[in-house]
Specification:
By secondary structure, this protein is an alpha+beta fold. The strands form 2 sheets. Strands 1-5-6-3-2-4 form a 6-stranded antiparallel β-sheet. Strands 7-8-9-10 form a 4-stranded antiparallel β-sheet, with no helix packed on it. Strand 2 and strand 3 form a beta hairpin. It is elongated. The two termini are 56 Å apart. The mean pLDDT is 80.
């Protein structure tokens, strides 16, 4: 039970009302004891927390940036896409809110169950089509009379956008979206039951001088297996792990390319200046390296391996026998 703490001004006002007779102490007590009831609409069941909705918003903010880049390249025109809102509503309410004839793209998202719906306002869809056909991007709403060529061009444009969708969700789950249906009448699409909760991500879209909305409809059945992954804790942890693994890979790659100096001494000795001055042809200088003992291979002047000399492809070489352990390098 959460107790409400009153400020000093509120306490003074309450005492003044009681003393002046404006409020009866017994009525106040009775009012506080009454159970407060809040109306709950089971048709609008809230199945996602605010934290999870915020995570979905972040994912689709990234998706909006990727779509902006993709459509800008495909249409060679000014494109701006941003997240306008993220809401959870019954599927029936979403169907009633979109035009009776519009552009609908149904994507399967294996290994997740169910399908994701992308609804594109006809004004936006035809502006895209006009740009593809060499026009200025003007919008003519004739969604009811699409030709086969227009249908194919439009479906191919949205089918390629699946790559952006997959990349935007890669921080949460890896899936490969596939465009299964291209439709213009919402009544022909039965994704889920009318009362099923869906998340609607509305993207404010501008193509040239034409503006409209792109709505992404994600049913609860699609998100149910990955709902725990939408928490802030998972989001931060996964991003940290991803950054750590990327940094480790970059450091490892850089170290593998680093060059080191490797050298082996056959032996060494010390002689005096007088001996050096009196050296003659065929004189023999004895080294301190016994012939039956292995040589040392030094890496950057540090002894690292025991080796034995030999030849490899008519070149002088050494064969590694064992690694030298020094002090705390035993681990």
């Amino acid at each position: 039970m959460v107790e409400e703490v009153l400020s000093q001004n509120e306490i003074d006002a309450l005492l003044s009302a009681i003393s002046s007779g404006e409020m009866n102490a017994e009525e106040l007590k009775q009012e506080n004891e009454e159970q407060k009831v809040r109306v709950y609409d089971f048709k609008r069941a809230l199945r996602f927390s605010k934290d999870q909705i915020r995570s979905l918003a972040r994912i689709h903010e990234n998706y909006a940036r990727l779509l902006t880049t993709y459509f800008s390249g495909e249409l060679r025109s000014y494109v701006n896409i941003s997240v306008a809102s993220v809401d959870q509503i019954p599927y029936e309410e979403f169907i009633r809110s979109i035009p009776t004839m519009t552009v609908l793209n149904m994507f399967s998202v294996q290994p997740l169950e169910g399908r994701i719906l992308m609804e594109v306002n006809p004004n936006i869809a035809y502006a895209m089509l006009d740009r593809q056909l060499g026009g200025r991007g003007s919008s003519i709403n004739k969604v009811e009379n699409l030709t086969e060529i227009e249908t194919m061009l439009m479906s191919q444009l949205f089918e390629k956008s699946r790559i952006s969708l997959s990349e935007a969700w890669s921080s949460i789950i890896e899936f490969d979206p596939v465009l299964e249906e291209f439709e213009v009448n919402p009544q022909f699409l039965q994704m889920v039951s009318p009362n099923e909760t869906v998340v609607i991500v509305s993207l404010d879209t501008t193509i040239g001088e034409t503006s409209g909305m792109i709505n992404i409809c994600i049913p609860h059945i699609v998100l149910e297996p990955i709902i725990p992954n939408l928490s802030v804790h998972y989001w931060m942890q996964s991003n940290t792990n991803k950054q750590d693994s990327e940094s480790y890979a970059k450091i490892t790659q850089s170290l593998q390319r680093a060059e080191v100096e490797a050298k082996t001494f056959l032996g060494e000795t010390t002689i005096s200046i007088d001996q050096l001055l009196h050296l003659h042809k065929d004189d023999v200088i004895g080294l301190n390296q016994p012939i039956d003992r292995p040589l040392q291979l030094q890496i950057n002047d540090l002894p690292k391996f025991h080796v034995q000399p030999g030849k490899y492809k008519n070149k002088m070489a050494v064969q590694v026998l064992e690694e030298l352990k020094r002090g705390n390098e035993d681990e």
